[in-house]
Specification:
This protein is mainly alpha-helical and about 80 residues long. Helices cover about 95% and strands about 0% of the residues. The longest helix has about 80 residues, at about 5-80.
Amino acid sequence: MNIELVIIIAAGVGIFMFFLGWVVSTKIGQGKVANAEKLAEKIVSEAEKEAAALKNQKILEAKDEWYKQKQIFEKDTYHQR
């Protein structure tokens, strides 16, 4: 075999392996980004659910307190008559 042919083949294989590695690395990186995006969406969704539950709880507590104060007011005004 000719030394020039071996050098050309080796260079071609080297270039091919470089691009193959680059493609594989890119695909792995895209997979990690996709996983991170899914995790972020899950965290945001859970936080929104938790915030809605807390909001509803606080609204219920406020209504309960309002009702208690209303009862006290009505009791006081009834006794003043």
